[in-house]
Write a structure and sequence with these properties.
about 525 residues; alpha+beta; 5-stranded antiparallel beta sheet; about 15% helix; rod-shaped
């Protein structure tokens, strides 16, 4: 037997020519553990031989008791450990833990023989904080903190350790007043770290930009025309409201705030208010979003044909005055125009403010409804008595009426004989014997005059007056007293190529044709 065979037998090896049965363990299997089991046993023995705690370790313990002076903690050792309660007080000076809570502690010292342990909760917290800060720096994740002070060049942020927030990184845009940020809880990015010097620099700007990019992406999926969103009023201008949709601002124009008239957007919404809006238009290339709020409610004009018709009498409120009329709100979102010509039967107004004020309640008549143009024509005077309906009863042709010259035109003068009733004295009816070229030759605006009623047409609101008819017609008197063949004396008033005009009486001229004029030779000639 060789030495090699002898060793094989001593180690429990079998004869190669006589192999073991598959299910029958060998002698080696009976006395030697597998390799993995042996490693576990060795590791366990090393763990038993090594001390369970070492200075600098951070371990977790369970709070057993909280007293006025200390915290009792179970670390799984034979004895319990204690720590000053001062290490567990919150910002309000109250204990931040309760029995049953799990806390991190830093092992200051550990005596294996006596089991005495010295711990520090604050050092454990600080170590965890620094680990979190370093991880956030490496992975570029955000950390939370609270702005606690203002220093030169920026702000101090408590992120577990004091960190410096440069002013240029306080916001996405230059911030005009950093003091307004003090006390705020913020998210920020760690942009520089030096643990040996306890130096950390953070950026709120980067965190805000990252959050804005994320929200824009989420918003883009929902930002389609017709979508209804909830936003917050960010800023108010005269022309509209800027709404923060959570990643993008949209413009809510003043005309889309309400179906009713809005003088200033602040009458409807306030800065910081949360409102529901509808997307009217979205321009992806320009990044513009047009919003509407009134579109979330029914259009009141849809009911106008059923509510208002020509000839109706309705009530409303004066909401606007212009040079040409007044707008009257019949209901929120539905307005009509009272033209200045429809405000009074008698007064000639230069501006509606002469008889109306903003906010006045008025009764008006509906003249016309134009639904395609969303216009309603109203009349204020139809609710007042029309003086022209009684003109025929008050005045007759031939009657003499007093009046006031209201206006002068090239063709005559308008005379007001009562409120709302004017008559016209035409140039031809101003004088029997004068060739009047303009009424200002004999009349003045505001002058009180008497006139004769020549014609009445109430249906067309016309009244013809005469001034000369107050006097006798000189032509009629002349012809009554003068007959053909009578010899009369007169004065040549003007010469023309075909003869001369001779004034035979005041205001009466006759023509003496050139053929009727005899010269010194008994024939016609030059005069």
């Amino acid at each position: 037997m060789s030495e090699e065979d002898d060793r094989s037998l001593q180690e429990g090896a079998t004869d190669p020519e006589q192999p073991n049965e598959p299910n029958e363990p060998s002698a080696a299997d009976a006395v030697t553990p597998e390799g993995g089991e042996m490693s576990s046993l060795l590791a366990g023995m090393e763990a038993l031989s090594a001390p369970p705690l070492a200075p600098g370790d951070v371990v977790q313990g369970r709070v057993l008791k909280v007293t006025d002076a200390e915290i009792v903690i179970d670390l799984g050792l034979k004895t319990e450990v204690t720590a000053p309660i001062a290490e567990f007080l919150n910002n309000e000076g109250q204990p931040s833990v309760a029995p049953g809570d799990t806390v991190d502690v830093w092992i200051e010292q550990y005596d294996e023989l006596s089991g005495a342990v010295s711990i520090s909760h604050q050092k454990a917290v600080r170590r965890r904080v620094w680990e979190d800060i370093e991880r956030a720096f490496q992975e570029q994740t955000s950390v939370s903190g609270r702005i606690v002070g203002r220093i030169k060049g920026g702000l101090t942020v408590d992120i577990g350790v004091p960190a410096f927030l440069p002013a240029s990184h306080a916001d996405t845009r230059p911030h005009s007043d950093l003091d307004t940020l003090q006390g705020q809880e913020i998210s920020c990015k760690v942009i520089k770290i030096n643990r040996k010097r306890n130096n950390v620099v953070v950026s709120r700007k980067l965190a805000l930009e990252e959050d804005l990019t994320r929200r824009k992406g989420e918003l883009a999926e929902r930002l389609v025309e017709g979508a209804e969103l909830v936003g917050q009023v960010k800023n108010i201008a005269e022309y509209g409201v800027f709404v923060d949709l959570g990643g993008m601002d949209g413009l809510l124009h003043v005309t889309d705030l309400s179906w009713g008239r809005v003088g200033n957007p602040s009458e409807v919404v306030q800065v910081g208010q949360e409102i529901r809006v509808k997307v009217l238009k979205h321009d992806l290339e320009k990044g513009r979003v047009s919003l509407g709020m009134k579109q979330l409610t029914p259009d009141p004009w849809e009911m106008v044909p059923r509510t208002y018709n020509a000839g109706d009498r309705v009530a409303g409120r004066v909401v606007s005055l212009t040079d040409y009329g007044a707008f009257v709100e019949l209901e929120p979102g539905v307005e009509g125009l009272v033209h200045i010509s429809e405000m009074s039967w008698s007064k000639r107004l230069r501006h509606p403010s002469k008889i109306l004020n903003l906010g006045d309640r008025v009764d008006v008549g509906v003249l016309e409804v134009n639904l395609p143009k969303r216009r309603i024509s109203l009349s204020l005077k139809v609710s007042l008595p029309d003086p022209w309906t009684t003109v025929s009863e008050k005045y007759a042709v031939g009657a003499v009426v007093p009046g006031r010259v209201r206006n002068l035109t090239d063709f005559g003068a308008f005379v007001e004989i009562e409120d709302g009733v004017d008559g016209l004295i035409h140039l031809a009816n101003m004088s029997w014997n004068r060739n009047i070229k303009h009424p200002s030759e004999i009349l003045k605006k505001g002058q009180q005059v008497d006139a004769v009623v020549l014609a009445l047409d109430p249906a067309n609101r016309r009244l013809a007056l005469g001034l000369k008819q107050l006097e006798e017609d000189p032509c009629q008197s002349f012809f009554d007293n003068t007959h053909v063949g009578d010899v009369v004396r007169g004065k040549v008033s003007r010469k023309v190529s075909f003869g001369v005009f001779v004034e035979v009486a005041a205001g009466i001229e006759g023509l003496c044709h050139i053929s009727e004029i005899e010269d010194g030779f008994g024939g016609g000639g030059d005069v």
